[in-house]
Amino acid sequence: QVQLVESGGGLVQPGGSLRLSCAASGLTFSRYTVAWYRQAPGKERELVASTSTSSGTNYADSAKGRFTISRDNAKNTAYLQMNSLKPEDTAVYYCRVAGNYWGQGTQVTVSS
User: Fold this and answer.
1) Tens digits of per-residue pLDDT, 34-83?
2) Are 18 and 74 in contact (CB under 8 A)?
3) For every residue of 31-84, which 3-state class applies, written as one string?
4) What pLDDT score was predicted for residue 62?
5) Is the dihedral angle over the CA atoms 64, 67, 72, 75 positive or is it negative?
6) Rounded to an integer, what distance in angstroms lies between the CA atom of residue 106 and that of residue 48?
């Protein structure tokens, strides 16, 4: 049974940083692309960043220069380092693996 567990969300002031983690089990993590999505209230879920099996990366324009996606295949874990956070980054952040599996999400709130 595939399970994805996100952690690391919370309340942070504008300009602050957070590091999200996505721990996977039940699949061979290294074989799959991993992506981070987010969904703000009243908005559609959107792609934030993704990393391929060869650790190539792709970012939404809103994330470029501020967010960094990475993966540790030995730990079956992906990360999203978020710096220079803005109030508009407030959302529930989800990881997605293999195009099919989603975590339960972790809330990120950026507010003073």
Assistant:
1) 999 999 999 999 999 999 998 899 999 999 999 999 999 999 999 999 99
2) no
3) HCCEEEEEECCCCCCEEEEEECCCCCEEECCCCCCCEEEEEEHHHCEEEEEECC
4) 97
5) negative
6) 14
